[in-house]
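Re: beginner question about structure tokens

> Can someone show what the tokenized structure looks like for a real chain? I only ever see the sequence side.

Sure, here's an example I had lying around. Input first:
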Amino acid sequence: MAKLWAGRFSKTTDETVNDFNSSIPFDNRLYPQDIEGSLVHSEMLARQGIITAADRDQIHSGLKEILQSMDAGEVEFDPAQYEDIHMCVEQLLTERIGQAGKRLHTGRSRNDQVALDMRLYVRQEILEVRDQVLHLIEVLTDVAEKNTATIMPGYTHLQRAQPVTFAYVLLAYVSMLKRDVRRLENTLDVLDECPLGSGALAGTTYDLDRHFTAEVLGFSQPCANAMDGVSDRDYCLEFLSDLSILMMHLSRLSEEVISWCSWEFKFIELDDAFSTGSSIMPQKKNPDICELIRGKTGRVYGDLMTLLTVMKGLPLAYDKDMQEDKECVFDAIDTVTMCLKVLPDMLSTMTVLTENMAAAGRKGFINATDCADYLTKKGMPFRDAYKLTGGLVARCIQEGRTLEQLTLKELRVESELFDESFYEAVDLLNAVKRRNTFGGPAPEQTEKQIAMARDFLQEHRKQDES
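And the corresponding structure tokens:
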């Protein structure tokens, strides 16, 4: 079949070149956006008197029929027939309605057409990813609310450090995910300009109403510079950056879960429905979901780096290199949404082994700082209290005891400042409760963080309803 652009060519495209050049095998997923843009573009052409109302009506009827056919899976996206989704829709339209279909592309280039399709598609996907992240925030908040008094060790350098609660740890990830939501919403603002009407690079001689098409398509304004409108994909890069940071957070959370459900920690038990076994070791219960999320994070990073590399040396305006934007954007979206689909259910069904968490806290000397603070508040210089406490920890390690198991007589050999109140001071739950500064792990503070998360979720639900 002759290409729609084949007017100046005396030969047909080589078959290998055709396969290499064609994007229809992957950009066919843009058909809803392509048809939406064409409906609005043709409406504008009729309003401006560039095409007749009768042509517009035929175009609209044909496009809607094509949309139904594509939704039903009745169209074969064959590279031998169609170079890309834009040519596919236009060829099908002309086949179905005749001459009127040939008028659709008036005042438009594939350059501004694909720029519009990608903005519409990315805008839709941002909203869907954001909703999935909000659901994950809700799940983490629900689990946190049940564990505001579940004591566990907090870690630095993967060494037990200070007493916290399981709620506090989960709420740290809630804070990260809230920022991920804000980043996604910022990208919505960045892409909120309509490139339709930019033409190939320098606009058009037709009297287009670009503000009309922008408004109908849900953009706040048209792109101010036509060349910029067709030649940049910075909003795609920002979206891929958002997804990469999001995946980094999901990967860190997954790493925590992998550790927590190991026998070395045994802080949680994953539901059987969200675990896998070994082909040779019958005792194994593997956290494969988390390992895959951790592994797929590098894949999303690669998508970002691919597009950064594609764009870094391109001269203005449009270059065919930019066809490479789609596969990495599509792959990143598919990967992230797959991870966000499975992770919340896994977390909501896990069993929290509270006693194991508390036992790890008791054995890790995570109340050593509280011992030093206890002495400091009684008048000992902090560095002296730090050194004395370090000596007590070393003795306990040697003797296989904890600080709480030292007798008052043994303690007073080291300092007369020790009295019965010491044991209350180093009690793990009391130690957590005293960390009652804003943002701390005290139950009072974690309840405030939970309330903030609930407010965040409610605010976004109201935005979606309005």
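Each token stands for a local structural state, so reading them left to right follows the chain. The two ends are 48 Å apart (CA to CA).
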